[in-house]
Design goal:
By secondary structure, the protein is of the alpha+beta class. Helix content is 17%, strand content 33%. It has 4 helices and 12 strands; from the N terminus they run βαβββαββββββββαα. The longest helix has 13 residues, at 29-41.
Length: 205
């Protein structure tokens, strides 16, 4: 794996909270089991491939409505994950997008950013399904590893990259929910970071 060169980002000590654990009463381990069982049935040629060599691939569970980005529609695989329903109901039942993403061992998804954060209309939550200690995400200069079977919020409006230098694949299920439904569940200091986020994105560009 050829490691990318990291831009020099502005000081981001307040990014220590990008890996906030989101509390939910919905059981998560049944989702993990269903995701792994589904991936066993979905052949590689039916997955989306962001990398030509197949190192980063994904299966869309809910796809965004092009006419209403706040609303999503279940794909052919949605009914294979019934345990998602209690989790989605915990966030108001409105899910704009949901994907299972796989990163191969000894590979990376390079620096980029997405318009999802508590300061945007939508926020992104991650449920690690399969991981290893060397599968990490860099949010600017803050590196986090998220263990399996727990739910995490990350500010993906900041530049970030995903590295997997381990020997096993990294599989995450992630989904986008209305930020208005998520803000009451997270610390207030995770919002209102427009200026430092814009500075970080400008360094990446």
């Amino acid at each position: 794996m050829a490691h990318s060169v990291s831009p020099t980002f502005p000081a981001t000590s307040d990014l220590a909270f990008t890996d906030e654990i989101v509390a939910t009463l919905a059981p998560l381990m049944p989702i993990v089991d269903e995701v792994l069982a589904l991936l066993d049935r979905v052949p590689m040629e039916r997955r989306l491939h962001q990398c030509l060599d197949g190192s980063w691939s994904s299966v869309e569970i809910i796809t965004s409505d092009p006419n209403d980005p706040m609303q999503g529609h279940g794909t052919e695989w949605f009914d294979d994950l019934p345990s998602l329903l209690p989790l989605f109901e915990a966030f108001g039942g409105v899910i704009a997008h949901c994907t299972i993403a796989r990163l191969a061992p000894d590979d990376l998804l390079d620096w980029h950013y997405d318009p999802v954060s508590l300061d945007h209309d939508l926020s992104r939550l991650h449920l690690p399904v399969r991981s290893n200690p060397d599968a990490v995400t860099d949010f600017c200069d803050a590196r986090v590893h998220w263990p399996e079977g727990r739910l995490f919020y990350g500010d993906y409006g900041f530049p970030h990259r995903v590295l997997n230098t381990g020997r096993t694949e990294r599989i995450h299920l992630y989904f986008d929910v209305p930020s208005a439904d998520l803000r009451p569940l997270l610390p207030e200091n995770l919002s209102g970071r427009h200026q430092i986020r814009e500075m970080a994105v400008n360094r990446l560009l």
